[in-house]
Amino acid sequence: MKIKCDTCGGEFYPEEIITFAVRAGESKVEHICLSCLSKELNYVNFGDITRKKLGIQCQYASRYVHGKIEGWPYLGKDLRFKNDPINDYHSLQIHKDDVEEFVRRVKGHCQEREKL
């Protein structure tokens, strides 16, 4: 019997999928295939990164991701993010291989702005 992955929708044998409780103490479970799990593990919490590496709260740093707010440049171009930076910046994630590039872009922008 195959089990459907809740992330990609594919069907997998039990040994190819992980089943976990959505919240401790609840009976609802989700299923994720090993391929999707591997992809999920490559993303880190955006807010943790911006506070530690930039000293900026997620709410403000997320404005650099999309550049849709006047006065905030689009510094997230060609970088990998998950979730909605506009409506739900708390759940925003960035791919671990893009962290240093994003940090470099934001720091560069802030240095240029200070020169004005």
**Helix fraction bin:** 25-40%
How large a portion of the residues is in β-strands, by DSSP E?
A: 15-25%
Give me the strand/helix succession.
EEEEHEHHEEH
Largest sheet: 3 strands, antiparallel
Q: What number of structural domains do the residues give? A: 2
Quote the average pLDDT: 90
Spatial separation of the terminal alpha carbons:
64 Å
Radius of gyration: 18 Å
Structural class: alpha+beta
Question: How many helix segments?
Answer: 4
Q: State the total count of DSSP E strands.
A: 7
**Overall spatial form:** elongated
Low-confidence stretches: none
If strands are numbered along the chain, what order do they take across the biggest sheet? 5-7-6
How would you briefly describe this protein structure?
It is built from four helices and seven strands; from the N terminus they run ββββαβααββα.
Features:
two-stranded antiparallel ribbon; alpha+beta; 116 residues; single chain; 2 domains; 4 helices; three-stranded antiparallel β-sheet
